[in-house]
Amino acid sequence: MIKAVGLDLDDTLYDRNQVYERTLQAMEQDVVTTGVSFQEFNEVFQEESQIEFQKFTKGLKGETTFKIDRVLSTYQRLGHPLKYEQALKFNELYLYHKKQIELRPGMAKLIDYLRSIGMELFVLTNGAAATQASKLQYLGVDKQIPVEKSFISDEIGVAKPNREIFNVVEDSLGLAGSEILYIGDHYENDILGCMKNDWAAVYYNVNEESVEDENVVQFSSDQQVYEYVKSLV
């Protein structure tokens, strides 16, 4: 029996790509013109973000440094190296557009429904503590899910898919893994991480990646996720 439902943050609760696309558009208009498409930019940027985030997680870099370095390395790989000041401008533009984020409609309905039936809710996300907490505030999730039920990798000291972070959530909630359902958009970190810890998982496959695993429940729209979870609990 499901007694708690967990939610990933980035790309699950809101469209992170929209923030980066608006940031790139502003960079192209006001800072540096590359002519690079958002799809090409984002593919490289996400790869560099993962590389730099791992360095941050291991304590090799601070938050400010890793966020600057992922921008510098992305533009370098794309053949348009930036000056340090231009990378700072990218992050300033990103912060501005991040404040405009909104819950995906299906996720907003899902949170409202789960709260209406008294289901315990929590957030489990990888990222820097202050950054992730601010996103929850911009989305208004901090008013719907208590701050003590928001589990951020930076505060815990390990990130998904490490088994320890799932154990921390279980201990905090006082539940077994089999009593938890989690919704996330990252196949390795979210879905495989859950399955290895006996959590039920819903793969919100926002990028419609090819995942041929009959054991994985997956949907490509937030409305589908809402309808499925509502029928399940």
From TrEMBL:
Required cofactor(s): Mg(2+)
InterPro entries reported for this sequence: HAD-like_hydrolase, HAD-like_sf, HAD-SF_hydro_IA, HAD_sf
UniProt superkingdom: Bacteria
Keyword Ribonucleoprotein: no
GO BP term, example: small molecule metabolic process
Pfam families, alphabetized: Hydrolase
Molecular-function GO term, any one: hydrolase activity
Key word Plastid present: no
Keywords assigned: Hydrolase, Magnesium
The protein's name: Putative hydrolase of the HAD superfamily
Species whose genome carries this gene: Desemzia incerta
